[in-house]
Amino acid sequence: MKLLLAIVQDKDSNRLSSEFVQANVRATKLSTTGGFLRAGNTTFIIGIEDERVDEVLEIIKENCQAREQYVTSPVTFDISMDAHSSYPIPVQVGGATVFVMPVEGFHHF
Ligand code: 2BA
């Protein structure tokens, strides 16, 4: 068995949940926050048999898009101590960031 941690954008999370239900993939959804953008995202915890890992990765890939978001750079000062106003910088977010980990034990009481 493997444990997948899949960090996805909020916009993709409902569709991905539905696809997991349809495919009989059991998952837990957590509301999380990205460390860089400090914006909400969604982390799925998925316990799955080894032979189904590729299937789950494919579902995630099919349902999570890359999108551009803007991060505002901090105000900077030049040598004359004039403040330059902050301006938005584009960063590409996603489709999804997925960690695959081995599971030592699984109990379902
Ligand atoms: P955030 O940390 O909010 O990052 C959002 C996007 O900002 C990232 O997209 C990446 O394009 C950019 N970014 C992140 N850190 C950066 C940095 N130090 N300098 C420049 N750009 C940076 P993704 O790579 O697709 O990541 C989406 C979200 O997945 C992240 O949101 C974070 O919540 C999670 N994530 C990504 N890599 C991770 C990792 N190695 N460990 C834990 N969580 C991770």
From TrEMBL:
InterPro entries: CdAMP_rec (IPR010375), N-reg_PII-like_a/b (IPR011322), N-reg_PII/ATP_PRibTrfase_C (IPR015867). This is Transcriptional regulator. It comes from Vagococcus carniphilus. The lineage of its organism: Bacteria, Bacillati, Bacillota, Bacilli, Lactobacillales.
